[in-house]
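Posting for a labmate who doesn't have an account.
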Amino acid sequence: MSSNNNNNDSVISQEIKDKLYETATLAKDTAYTPYSKFRVGAALLSEDGTIFKGCNVENASYGAAICAERTAYVKAVSEGHKNFKALVVTSDHEEFISPCGICRQFISEFGPAKLPVYLVNVKGETLSTTIEELLPYTFGIEQGRKYLIQ
């Protein structure tokens, strides 16, 4: 996996990044996409080193579909994990795909803002970014505690 480096790449070893990419690719292979044929795989690294994979799962009602990134997060949270170190997202396309708006908001709930997000294209090239770069000025748990929870 080659990389367009930014300062987040030093946080995660190349060995772990390669494992995450492999896991995201395996997840993509299990995607259920009979309508769009747009397969996406994700791999989420928890603070304790556990890797959760997720794929997109479509539904005839479209709105009931779930993206690969949210699948990985839901699996992790349902197993008691709420602190994360990295996320990888991959597809079958040459261009980099990034999490949709709903996923960006969902991911930001669990932070941290500097969490490395690696976007991997079908050629194995990587674009490194962060949650903060994907969703600047997020409305997250901190604002929720300040404005919504009394």
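Reply:
Got it, the structure tokens are right above this. The chain has five helices and six strands.
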